[in-house]
Design brief:
Layout (H helix, E strand, L loop, with lengths): L1 E6 L14 E6 L1 E2 L6 E2 L2 E5 L2 H17 L11 H11 L7 H19 L9 H12 L5 H20 L26 H9 L7 H10 L3 H5 L6 E2 L4 E4 L2 E5 L3 E5 L9 E4 L2 H13 L19 H15 L6 H13 L6 H12 L4 H7 L4 H15 L3
């Protein structure tokens, strides 16, 4: 059943309409899940025939299940909460889900949350993305926020709450690797030579010689170190959520993060001596905290800042130890460019070599020079 009416027409009933008034319609549908009735519709049609055609098309979408009658009261906020609580909760780790909720509450809800899901349009989404770019957020964070919105609308489309994903119609920000600072070979050698008495020396040593992520280093146990084969097996990382606090997450960031790293002889020798001198702990952690066996990021940042200031090297973050390691490996890349990048990518635990290339693109000019030097030496013209 459908009803039609002309909005705002002031023309006499027996004369042709000349005021430009448009037609609107309403149809009656019932939600099969709840039995509730609703009257969705649309407006702005020039003729009654156009309104009838649109009403028949909308009715077909509801009857075939393409659209859901449950969508009548859904806002962007209410549906996104359902998506996170019922769908994404089964697909991501707890700490990742917590980050998604934080992104929703801090960035998406204030700008788009109250908009009716079916009335959200491309212009609103485009302005939302543009406003994000004008703030102090890095490109990677903006991309993650937009990805969450796009995932939500894709699910709304799949469930029949909307008939198009307007987030797929806008211009999205391009990925730009975050800027980071790295040390030269001289810097990190000098830093290691002068921090041997630091509580974090094992952390610095592993970060600079293995390229492990900070959370992977602080989650490392002695069971993961094979002194005979001189390798470290990366299988877990340290995570934090409001509900659990700090804990060890046994599933890595991605499949590639679960990896085996060959360690230099000098590092293996140090770790062997360090293990003998270390006081045992219940989790068998290589670098435990003092109050808690797992070391917090805030503690690492504080100690490292103090050591850097004392030594007098350029300031970098704990994660930049990993960047320094990768940059050092890539700069003097040996003959056989593709093989060199692939090996470094596997060592870092990147899922794709393109991630390595995008992150360390600033090193590529030096790599080209190194290749030219190799060719000059190898080829006798």
């Amino acid at each position: 059943m459908a009803s039609y009416r002309k909005r705002g027409c002031k023309c006499p009933k027996n004369r042709k309409c000349t005021c430009g008034a448009t037609w609107e319609f309403r149809i009656s549908v019932t939600d099969p899940a709840t039995g509730e009735r609703s009257q969705p519709g649309d407006s702005g049609f020039k003729t009654k025939e156009e309104a009838k055609q649109a009403a028949a098309d909308l009715k077909r979408k509801y009857n075939s299940g393409i659209l859901s009658a449950s969508a009548k009261d859904e806002t962007v906020e209410s549906f996104m909460k359902k998506f996170l609580q019922n769908v994404l909760v089964n697909e991501v780790e707890e700490n990742t889900l917590e980050q998604k909720f934080a992104q929703m509450e801090k960035y998406i809800v204030p700008k788009l949350g109250r908009i009716h899901l079916k009335k959200l349009n491309p212009a609103q989404v485009q302005k939302f993305i543009t406003d994000l770019g004008e703030g102090d957020l890095v490109a990677g964070t903006i991309i993650n926020i937009v990805r969450l919105l796009n995932q939500t609308l894709n699910k709304a489309l799949e469930w029949g709450y909307i008939d198009r994903n307007v987030a797929s119609m806008v211009s999205k920000p391009k990925y730009k690797p975050e800027k980071f600072q790295v040390w030269t070979k001289q810097h990190f050698e000098y830093f290691l030579q002068n921090t041997k008495n630091s509580r974090l020396y094992p952390f610095y040593l592993l970060g600079l010689t293995t390229g492990m992520r900070p959370g992977e280093i602080t989650a490392l146990t002695w069971n993961h170190i094979n002194f005979r084969s001189k390798t470290i097996r990366v299988e877990q990382t340290v995570a934090w959520t409001k509900e659990k606090g700090i804990f060890i997450k046994t599933s890595p960031k991605n499949d590639a993060s679960r990896r085996t790293i060959t360690v230099p002889d000098q590092v293996i020798s140090y770790l062997r001596e360090y293990k003998i001198a270390q006081k045992p702990n219940s989790k068998n952690i290589v670098i435990p905290g003092i109050k808690n066996e797992l070391m917090y990021n805030s503690v690492i940042n504080k100690i490292m800042k103090g050591d850097i200031a004392r030594i007098g090297v350029p300031p970098i973050t704990p994660h930049d130890l990993r960047h320094t390691h990768a940059t050092y490996l890539l700069s003097p890349v040996p003959f056989g460019l593709a093989q060199g990048i692939k090996a470094v990518s596997e060592r870092l635990g990147h899922a794709q070599t393109s991630t390595t290339l995008n992150t360390y693109t600033h090193v590529l000019p030096n790599m080209q020079e190194s290749l030219a030097d190799v060719l000059n030496t190898a080829i006798n013209l």
